[in-house]
Design a protein that fits this description.
Elements lengths: L14 H6 L3 E5 L5 E6 H4 L2 H5 L4 E9 L5 E6 L10 E2 L2 E3 L5 H4 L5 H15 L12 E11 L5 E12 L11 E7 L1 H9 L1 H4 L5 H15 L14 E3 L2
Parallel strand pairs: 3-8, 7-10
Antiparallel strand pairs: 1-2, 3-6, 4-5, 4-9, 7-8
Length: 232
């Protein structure tokens, strides 16, 4: 397995995205037990992923009061899955005390608030921690290209809120709200239209999204807190 001090050639990549690769992610075992930390760079290298390195992540699905889902298109500057459409916000809790807290999924919820502001300019007061509904976890693996990829236990967080956006163009290329019918059409025509979708979003769409969407006002009935769904 590669060591933390592995040299990677970042020539041609965006300077800010390279800087973010030094953030420290939370390493976990197959049961989502925290076992250490490594840089975002290290845990996203396919050589390490192929050796079994696994980290914790989250995916936020934000709906407005019309029950429309906010989608984002990842910026071209992103190192993994550039230009792909995905759910509202996808990232990682960091290996810091406030985001390592597991009780009530508080760590991933704090990370979600941090990244919603960083990527989309959503102010924390518009997405308070107690408004997030944790639903379940998925375990998946997917290459982005020959060098980079994802291998994550991904916490799924839903929130319903009307928010103000101030998009960070280094993170997000475009955003749009979609109805359930519009989302289905995007998925059904993605190959025909050449629309690129992130692999985790496609897995969530295929396995869970619409039944959860139908229960937006009664999400507590959808919670499966103990299961880690192995979508490998």
């Amino acid at each position: 397995m590669l060591q933390e001090n592995t040299t990677v050639d970042f020539s041609g990549y965006d300077e800010e995205q390279v800087r973010l690769m030094e953030e420290m992610c939370i390493l976990v075992d197959q049961d989502d037990k925290a076992i250490g930390s490594v840089s975002k760079k290290t845990c996203h290298l396919m050589e390490n992923i192929s050796a079994g390195m696994l980290h914790r992540a989250f995916s936020v699905f934000l709906f407005n009061s019309r029950n429309e889902l906010l989608l984002q298109q990842r910026a071209s500057e992103k190192i993994t899955f550039p230009d792909c459409f995905t759910n509202t916000c996808c990232s990682h809790p960091l290996a810091i005390p406030s985001e390592l807290e597991e009780a009530g999924q508080m760590g991933v919820k704090r990370a979600a608030v941090r990244k919603l502001e960083h990527e989309l300019g959503i102010k924390p007061e518009q997405v308070p921690l107690d408004k997030f509904q944790y639903l379940t976890r998925i375990h998946y693996v997917s290459p982005s290209d020959g060098q980079w990829g994802e291998h994550e236990i991904d916490y799924i967080l839903f929130i319903k809120a009307d928010v103000d956006l101030n998009v960070n163009p280094n993170e997000v290329k475009s955003v749009k709200y979609v109805s359930k019918k519009e989302m289905m059409h995007i998925i059904e025509t993605a190959e025909e239209t050449g629309t690129k979708l992130t692999p985790w979003f496609k897995l969530i769409d295929t396995n869970f999204l619409y039944k959860w969407w139908d229960q937006l006002d009664n999400l507590s009935a959808c919670v499966d807190a103990k299961t880690i769904h192995r979508l490998l």
